[in-house]
Amino acid sequence: MNIPPGFRIVAETSAFERSVAEMVRRVPAGTVASYGRIAAWLGKPEAARAVGGAMARSPDGVPAHRVVTSGGRLAPGWEREQAELLRAEGVRVWRGHVREPIPWWDGPERRDVRSTRPGRSSG
Fold first, then answer.
1. Could you tell me which CATH number the domain at 15-103 has?
2. Hey, which bits of 1-123 come out as E strands?
3. Which of 54, 87, 95, 102 is the most exposed place for a label (fewest CB within 10 A)?
4. Where are the domains positioned within the chain?
5. Reported pTM
6. What angle do CA 48, 51, 55 make, to 5 degrees?
């Protein structure tokens, strides 16, 4: 198939890509999450690369700049813009990496049914 220069094939967004976008929207400003942790939170711990692909195709409004590698490295190809967006949220970035201590997001809250039973203290 010959595609003219400047054109690209756009596929319909998959359920996984929509799940990734929704999870990334939950990452609070000033924190970051790794591709692998997002995959694990979605129940697909082996899908870190797929999360990266989904981020590359994410719709507007998804704070993709808050997703980095497990070592805190920024995404190749748009490090400058990603660093600027993170810095605007108070995240320290240096030489293509989020600086230690990395402000990792703890992830989505999980309800512990045992802690919500009557007569039990939740904390």
1. 1.10.10.10
2. 33-34, 67-68, 93-94, 97-98
3. 95
4. 15-103
5. 0.78
6. 145
